[in-house]
Design a protein that fits this description.
Number of domains of chain B: 2
Order of helices and strands of chain A: HHHH
Number of strands of chain B: 0
CATH topology of the largest domain in chain B: Rna Polymerase Sigma Factor, Chain: A
CATH architecture of the largest domain in chain B: Orthogonal Bundle
Strand content of chain B: under 5%
Number of helices of chain B: 9
Largest sheet of chain B: none
Largest sheet of chain A: none
Largest interface: A-B, 29 and 37 residues
Order of helices and strands of chain B: HHHHHHHHH
Distance between the termini of chain B: 48 Å
CATH superfamily of the largest domain in chain B: RNA polymerase sigma factor, region 2, helix turn helix motif
Shape of chain A: elongated
Radius of gyration of chain A: 32 Å
CATH class of the largest domain in chain B: Mainly Alpha
Radius of gyration of chain B: 17 Å
Number of domains of chain A: 1
Oligomer: heterodimer
Distance between the termini of chain A: 92 Å
Structural class of chain A: mainly alpha
Number of helices of chain A: 4
Number of strands of chain A: 0
Helix content of chain B: over 70%
């Protein structure tokens, strides 16, 4: 049995082989793949930004709605008649088969003011944002579609 | 045309209009060294190709953030080592232990090595593949790449003294394996 081993006998040789044209093609292939992924990640980032913008607008609308209701009451409480009006409005709307988003000119002034605020925000939104908001609402599991 | 300096390549990569040309120079300069380092870790050509691509795709995506605190090639080796370990860890999902990973790598080595090559070369690689992960990394970077312990320390995030000890242990284990098999 040998008792010594000299690393110089091996040197840097390895038993591995590589396909002939591998190193000629790998740079171009990798650059193409890197650019493809770069474009994809930029698209995803842009989409997230759009969704986040629309979600922020939606959150502002909801926040504005409740803040306005809250301001009509004294000491931060929502007055009972406002709640009753809201409840009756909802009932009437569903009974008549109308959408809650349709303007109701006969509703109490507080609610009418909320509607006009929503109208104002929506009129300031671009077509794309409105479409995206509509899509989000349509795909929301908890959003009840009005009955035809 | 001579080989471009790392500073020149980096300055090209950081400008939007010359990023692709800079990346091509960078990859042409380092692809073979990085490939062989990866190959000695993951063994199969197919895996080495995947890891090499992932390594340079990461470089392409993050080169803007490279501040030059470390050398460019130690940064490349570091990404390559991390990507190689990630690939081996993914394989661990299929097998249960480090020994099984070693066996898998040794079998791949036997299946894919050059036909009729000197059997001592296969035995030598087997000995390296049977080393613990840290010793294997140090051995490859020191023995094949001839990097300084300071550079290896940057790549493996380990102290120079620990690396020297690991390299010495690795050499002894390789020698013992060759003599006993």
């Amino acid at each position: 049995m040998n008792t010594d081993f000299d690393f110089k006998n091996i040197g840097k040789r390895t038993p591995y082989k590589v396909p002939d044209d591998f190193f000629d093609q790998i740079t171009e292939k990798t650059l193409m793949e890197a650019k493809r992924r770069d474009i994809r990640s930029r698209k995803i980032r842009r989409l997230w930004f759009s969704v986040a913008s629309v979600a922020s607008v939606a959150a502002l609308i909801v926040f504005g709605l409740f803040a306005d209701i809250d301001n009509t009451g004294k000491g931060g409480a929502i007055p009972l008649d406002t709640l009753n009006n809201l409840t009756s409005l909802n009932d009437t709307s569903y009974e008549n088969g109308d959408s809650l988003l349709s303007p109701d000119l006969n509703s109490p002034s507080g609610t009418r003011s909320n509607r006009s605020e929503i109208d104002k925000v929506i009129s300031n939104m671009s077509d794309e944002e409105i479409k995206l908001l509509a899509d989000i609402s349509y795909n929301d599991l908890f959003f009840e579609q009005p009955q035809q | 045309m001579g080989e471009r300096s790392d500073e020149f390549i980096l300055s090209m990569c950081k400008r939007v209009e010359s990023k692709d040309a800079g990346f091509t120079l960078l990859m042409n300069k380092y692809k073979e060294k990085i490939y062989w380092h990866i190959r000695r870790i993951v063994v199969s050509h197919h895996d080495a190709q995947d890891v090499l691509q992932e390594t340079f795709i990461n470089v392409y995506r993050h080169i803007d953030k490279f501040e030059g605190k470390s050398k460019l090639y130690t940064w490349l080796y570091r990404i390559a080592v991390n990507e190689s370990i990630r690939l081996l860890n993914n394989k661990k999902i299929d097998v249960t232990s480090y020994e099984e990973i070693c066996d898998y790598l040794v079998n791949t080595l036997r299946d894919t090595s050059i036909e009729g090559c000197d059997s001592i070369l296969i035995k030598f690689q087997e000995a390296i593949l049977k080393l613990p992960e840290k010793q294997r990394m140090v051995f490859n970077l020191r023995y094949y790449e001839e990097l300084s312990y300071e550079d290896i320390s940057e790549i493996l995030n380990s102290s120079v003294n620990a690396l020297k000890t690991n390299y010495h242990l690795a050499r002894e284990k390789v020698k013992k394996y060759i003599l006993n098999n």
